[in-house]
Amino acid sequence: MAYVIIDPETFRLNDRYETFETVGGAKRSLTAKIKKAQKQFDVYVDRFGKDSDWFNGTDKDLERIKRSVVMSYEEFDKKEPMVIRKNLMSGKTFVEKLNTPSHCSPASETYWSM
Known about the structure:
By secondary structure, this protein is of the alpha+beta class. It has two domains: about 1-80, no CATH class; about 80-114, no CATH class. It is about 40% helix and about 20% strand. The chain is built from four helices and five strands. It has helices at about 25-50, 60-65, 75-80, 110-114, and strands at about 5, 10-15, 70, 80-85, 95. It has a three-stranded antiparallel sheet. Strands 4-5 form a two-stranded antiparallel ribbon. Strand 1 and strand 2 form a beta hairpin. Helix 1 (about 25-50) packs antiparallel against helix 2. It is globular, with a radius of gyration of 18 Å. The two termini are about 35 Å apart.
C-alpha cells in the first residue's frame, strides 16, 4: 500500500511525485518538512524582523505543511475532487482530477506542445 502527504484544506498533494511504502515513513517525511519550513521561517524572521508584513512566503509554506496529513493513496484517489477545465484547443469543457499534472491535461499548453 502506498501513502501520500496532502493538504486536507485544498486536497493538493504536498509533493506530487512522492509516495511512501509505510505510514511511518510518510509521517517521518512530514515531520522533516515541518522542521525545515520552521527553520526557514525562523531564519527569515531573524534576518528581517517579526514586524514584517511579508515573510517571503515562508509563513504560508509553514501553515500549509503543518496542516498536512498522511493518507493512503487508495483513499486519496477515491476522495480527490474533480474540476471542470476548458480544452485549450477546442474550447470545450471537460472534467479531470484536481492534481492532474499540467503535461497530462488538455487544458495546458504543455500538453499540446509535446
